[in-house]
Amino acid sequence: PYALSPTPPITVKPSLLYTLTPMAPQLTSFIKSIASFNGDLSSMTAPPFILGTLSLTEFSAYWTQHPSVFVAPAAEPDPAKRALLVLKWFLSSLRPSYSTRNDKYGSEKKPLNPFLGELFLGKWEDEAGTTELVSEQLEGYNGQKASFSRTIHIRQVGHSLLTLSPPSESSFSSPLSEPETYLITLPNIHIEGLIYGKPFVELSSSTYISSSTGYVARIDYSGKGWLSGKKNSFSAVLYPRGREREILYNVEGQWTEDFSLKKVKGAGGSKLHSSGSGEVIDTYNARTQPITPLTVPALEQQDPWEANKAWEKVIAAITKGDMDTTNAEKSKIENAQRELRRKEREEGREWGRKFFSRSDRAEEWWER
Question: In sequence order, what DSSP letters do the residues of 225-292 get, joined into one string?
Answer without folding.
Answer: -SSS--TTEEEEEEEETT-TTS--EEEEEETTSEEEEEEPTTTTSSS---TT-SEEEEEEETTTSPPP
